[in-house]
Specification:
The structure is a homodimer. Chain A is of the alpha/beta class and about 120 residues long. The first copy, chain A, has one domain: STAS domain (Transcription Regulator spoIIAA, 2-Layer Sandwich). Helix content of chain A is about 50%, strand content about 20%. Chain A is built from four helices and five strands, in the order ββαβαβαβα. Chain A has a five-stranded mixed sheet, sandwiched between helices. Chain A is globular. Chain A starts with 5 loop residues before the first strand and ends with a helix. The model of chain A has no long low-confidence stretch (mean pLDDT about 90). At the A-B interface, strand 1 and helix 4 of A face strand 1 and helix 4 of B.
Chain lengths: ~120, ~120
């Protein structure tokens, strides 16, 4: 498995991260995602991390990069499904993800994206 | 990673299979999914297998079981994102998935589910 699938949901894209990320996979995801945003004119990206028990600085940086990349291409990124333990660890470690929106689950994330897109 | 995440999208549930399935994971998915269908009163399940390069008889049987399980709980199952090579192999091997609906991608799968739910 060398690619993380990107699913199109209307004008948004959904990425569910389930596997342990490594450099190559993160780079491939960034490439695929930018290509898909460009091809589908997506207005938003939902990044589901509910399967991740651990979010370290590598994943944190990847999320920030994806968010920055999407923003340049006129798409908002919302991180959804973060586990409570992950949120606690991020705060305790002082890891911040500047400019990244979060929502409790995919539905709320999608509503948030819809609001952001409409007000633009 | 010992659980496959189940995402709620309105009245449907979305499951993206990215990792190699084994017995325990398949059983856990069946348990989780039936519990989620019951809790959320979901009317349909989208099973995204776009990340799978290989669908063998084990995965085929798991998909059939999930479909049967959902049907008992009044939810339709649609398998989406099957790779062309996977479709060819399934036909060549004579593997059938009776009662399982398929669609090209998540969007079409969701439309199919909406139609099925409305006509009931």
């Amino acid at each position: 498995m060398d690619r993380i699938p990107i699913l199109r949901m209307g004008e948004f894209l959904l990425v569910t991260i389930q596997v342990d990320m490594h450099d190559q996979l993160a780079l491939a995801l960034q490439d695929d995602l930018s290509e898909r945003i460009s091809r589908t004119s997506a207005r938003g990206v939902l990044l589901d991390i509910s399967a991740l028990d651990i979010v370290d600085s590598f994943i944190g940086r990847m999320i920030s990069t994806i968010s920055g990349l999407s923003k340049i291409m006129d798409a908002e990124t919302v991180v959804v499904g973060m586990q409570p333990a992950v949120a606690i660890t991020l705060v305790e470690l002082g890891l911040t993800m500047p400019g990244v929106l979060t929502a409790l689950d995919v539905e709320r994330g999608m509503n948030l994206l819809r609001e952001r897109v409409q007000t633009q």
